[in-house]
Amino acid sequence: MLESEYVRNCNCNYQRILLEEKPEDKRYQYCILSRGGIRYLLPCSLRYMDNKAYLYYDISSTQNLIKVFGERKIDRSWMKDFLWGMKQLRYELDRFLLEEEHIIWSPEHIYQDLEKNDFSFLYIPYFQGETGLSELLDFMVERVTYEDERLVEFVYGMHEKINQIGIEYLHHQIHEDFEKLESEENRKDIKNEENRVSVIQKAEAETPVLQDRMPVAGREGGKKGLRFFLDGKRNKQAKKEEYRELLRRSMNEMSGYAVCEAVKYNKSEEVSFEEEFGKTIYIEETAKIRTAGLYKLDGELVTLLEKFPFVIGKKKEAVDLVLNDYSASRVHARIIREEGGTYIEDVNSTNGTFKNGLRLQPYEKRKLEVGDELRFGKTEYVYR
């Protein structure tokens, strides 16, 4: 089990992992990682504090997969980008003589740049523990969109084959299986397009026959064709008015029925004015359900919080509240509801999420109270 936490230092966000023992920092893998410049691997540095060794991974301007897919589903486009990233990662590992078994595959340790759709993976030199591959497989099975049946079959097949073959399946066969899926879909699209063109051509061939039977103004004479058109329009309007009148009558009858039911009484049950109105009747109040929201400092409502998690940022297709603020991150923060209350969570933002002036650490959560002032970059709201 990796012992990790998120920290901020020198305007960068890091995922910090504690090493069980002090490493030999002059060994090749530590030296090559510290040098940097390896694409698809998170930039990493080895640091010592309080007689302990830590690996610092720079995660600025990226999101881990757990946060990216809060409510979203994995579709074919994302899967294509992810598999391409895996293939490029393998080229880089071979190029720098690094070993694939030291990659951490769990979703919380795989990061995505939401602007470029590039992926970055976490590499721990000489790591001998559980790599989290099964967690990644379970993550994909849970979040794959079931609207794409062929993609669902691919994901379940991938899960089964990795359990049977192991990580070797990721080297070549997984890419071959996905390319096969794509080629089958392409053939299907071509066939559908051919069928569509065939239907259009058939319809065009039959059009002259249909036109001979249609009373068009230009063919039957101007006045006669125009009269036919106007008569049809009047008939449609008359039918609409008739339907509206029928609907009004139905509503009136229902309303009258409701009134009659309300005043209906049994004469034998009559009571005197004093008996009926001399009593004090307890009226139970219905509890009002209050919907919290975000407000500007002048009191103007910005948005109600009617779904959770509620994502805030400037990437329109990935958030629920769009911030028109250059200092905000693409996915900046989330408001979530858990047992015990509502919380604000920073989502690895560059310029920070603040609650009442105090900055949250990356992925830190703090409980919200009515009247709390929240700041995302330079944008300020009040929670109430």
Structural write-up:
With 384 residues, the protein is α+β, with helices and mostly antiparallel strands. It is built from nine helices and 19 strands. The strands form four sheets. A six-stranded antiparallel β-sheet has the order 10-9-19-18-15-16, with no helix packed on it. A five-stranded mixed β-sheet has the order 12-11-13-14-17, with no helix packed on it. Helix 5 (149-165) packs antiparallel against helix 6 (173-213). Residues 214-223 and 255-265 have low confidence and may be disordered.
Strands, helices and their partners?
Blueprint: E1 4-9, E2 12-18, H1 28-35, E3 44-49, E4 52-58, E5 63-64, H2 65-68, H3 76-95, E6 103-104, E7 110-113, E8 118-123, H4 133-143, H5 149-165, H6 173-213, H7 217-220, H8 222-263, H9 273-277, E9 293-295, E10 301-304, E11 310-313, E12 321-322, E13 333-338, E14 341-346, E15 353-355, E16 358-359, E17 365-367, E18 372-376, E19 379-383
Parallel strand pairs: 11-12
Antiparallel strand pairs: 1-2, 2-4, 3-4, 5-7, 6-8, 7-8, 9-10, 9-19, 11-13, 13-14, 14-17, 15-16, 15-18, 18-19
Helix pairs in contact: 4-5, 5-6
